[in-house]
Specification:
Number of domains: 2
CATH topology of the largest domain: Thrombin, subunit H
Largest sheet: 7 strands, antiparallel
Strand content: 35-45%
Number of strands: 16
Shape: globular
Oligomer: single chain
Structural class: alpha+beta
Radius of gyration: 22 Å
Strand order of the largest sheet: 7-6-1-2-3-9-8
CATH class of the largest domain: Mainly Beta
CATH superfamily of the largest domain: Trypsin-like serine proteases
Length: 230
């Protein structure tokens, strides 16, 4: 009977060790995977600050779309709707540098909230477009909330094709669960492989103008592709 009890205890110990090993493996690979996603994409994203007088700054985000310093962001980041002109000063900073680069506006969309700006830098890491996405797919963004610096956030695609009214027109956008703040405008939405699925553009607000967290919208890569092609 004693030997039988010892055998049972050994089996229990082995079972516990097996379960702990599974949990440890899952934790390691999940943590490692998230870390790799962050490290593989952080240098593709930039902080942006804009001003008309160098006294008051507004902050936003952008990301490289080629290796020659061309950056995609929102139109409302580069273009001041109050003055109907591009901001006088647009500056960009990379995640691994303290230097602010002066940026020039290259192109602004007439109909979509998209703009390209450029800095004098080569060999920039950049995103490649991905057009096919699925509801429930895990996504990520890196942004510059309130000018605090680049921050990493994850979420899911709630609805891959949602018709919404934005700037007094009906557009098709990706609805996400990403929690974003002022300064995240122009940030990339990408998958675990670092492929671009959209660009952060606006958030849902209630009837009092208060932001509803966890409901944000991105212009899809198909819209980006058309803008860049045209």
């Amino acid at each position: 009977m004693k030997n039988k009890n010892v055998i049972i205890i050994n089996y229990i110990v082995l079972a516990i060790l097996f379960i702990l090993n599974i949990f440890a493996s899952v934790y390691f690979f999940t943590s490692n995977d998230t870390s790799m996603i962050f490290n593989n994409n952080i240098l593709k994203v930039v902080e942006i600050k804009v001003s008309d007088n160098s006294l008051t700054w507004a902050y936003a985000t952008g990301f490289f779309i080629d290796n020659n310093g061309t950056i995609l962001t929102n139109k409302h980041v580069a273009y001041n709707s109050s003055t109907n002109a591009n901001y006088n000063i647009i500056q960009v900073r990379l995640a691994n540098e303290d230097k602010w680069y002066d940026a020039n506006v290259i192109k602004i969309s007439e109909n979509d909230d998209l703009a390209t700006i450029k800095i004098d830098k080569t060999n920039t890491s950049y995103f490649k477009l991905k057009e096919n996405v699925s509801n429930g797919e895990t996504i990520y963004t890196i942004g510059n909330p309130n000018g605090f610096g680049l921050s990493f956030t994850s979420g899911v695609i709630s609805i891959s094709k949602r018709n919404v009214i934005y700037n007094n027109q009906t557009i098709q956008a990706i609805q996400t669960s990403l929690v974003i703040n002022e300064g995240n405008s122009g940030g990339p939405v990408f998958d675990k492989n670092g492929d671009l699925v959209g660009i952060i553009s606006f958030r849902l607000k209630d009837k009092y103008g208060e932001v509803i967290q966890g409901v944000s919208f991105a212009l899809p890569s198909s819209t980006i592709k058309t803008f860049l092609k045209d």
